[in-house]
Amino acid sequence: MARNLFLDALISREDFDVQDESQISQGPHKTSLSYSDFKIPGFFFASLRKPDFQRETSEWDTEKVCDLIASFLDGDLIPAVILWKYADSYTFVIDGAHRISALAAWVNDDYGDGKLSRKFFDNSIPEIQIDNAKKARELINTEIGAFKHYEESLFEPDLAEDKVKKRLKTLERELSIFSGLMEIREKQKTLSSR
């Protein structure tokens, strides 16, 4: 039986209503994310928001989350995520909330029962969710290894398990971001004013 993980607590929701287009961020945009961007607390992750219209981040089962983490560490192709930064406040996840949440779950050991999830549910997490999170942690720690072991291995690689050593070099791999929404909008404005 598939066990879907409830990762909706990892990225907060926010109203996507843009009131003043002059406030759209014109500054530099991130073009990739590394594992350190997924750490909680962290400046970048704290600014991430899911627009209200996005579905819950609860469609992926344990195996799919495990596969994505393995793909990330193995250097496999992972489709880019789409982020949109509004003014100097939030960065909205337009596409890729499940991918970002899966990696954040691994980095922060929160598969629906960790610190952010407990806060989201006022410490009243449904029992099925706790059970699913435990099973996910068990599978991921067995198949891939806990993130903290990778982090510890950066300082003592000789003590690392073989599966961790093999993937340690790809830990610095970055997830691509398509942040061209603003550039496309600007080009459209330029073309329409001709």
Automatic annotation (TrEMBL):
Boundaries of every GmrSD restriction endonucleases N-terminal domain copy: 48-156
Classification via Pfam families: GmrSD_N
Record InterPro entries: GmrSD_N (IPR004919)
Protein name, per record: DUF262 domain-containing protein
Organism: Symplocastrum torsivum CPER-KK1
Upper lineage: Bacteria, Bacillati, Cyanobacteriota, Cyanophyceae, Oscillatoriophycideae
